[in-house]
Amino acid sequence: MMTRFFKIIYSNKLFCLLMMIAQLSVLLLLSAWLGDYSKYFYTFMNFLSAVLIIYEINREEEPGFKLTWVMLIAIIPIFGTLLIYFCIITEPQKIGSQTK
């Protein structure tokens, strides 16, 4: 039973679901709490998205992967930015690997 629980906790689907919830909550909180200042946040996120799209286009990678990342960043900026940072820029280590 505990292994099933850990499988659910560490699954990619749960991470994606949490990131989508974070995207929606940020959008709702910005519109409710910040009002006038939300336009600055959206401008910043658009700028950051443009920088990440340029970064992704210039990477040595297969074109299909590039297109997928660019579309993700362009369609869902907050989620796409967090996901590309988590998956590509930080280069996470595999569980169980040892650093020397």
Quick synopsis:
With 100 residues, the chain is mainly α. It has helices at residues 2-9, 12-34, 38-58, 63-75, 77-89. Helix content is 78%, strand content 0%.
Describe what you observe in this structure.
- By secondary structure, the chain is mostly helical.
- Helix content is 78%, strand content 0%.
- It has 5 helices and no strands.
- The protein has helices at residues 2-9, 12-34, 38-58, 63-75, 77-89.
- Helix 2 crosses helix 5 (77-89), helix 3 (38-58) runs antiparallel to helix 4 and helix 3 crosses helix 5.
- The protein is flat and about 50 Å long.
- The chain starts with a helix and ends in an 11-residue tail after the last helix.
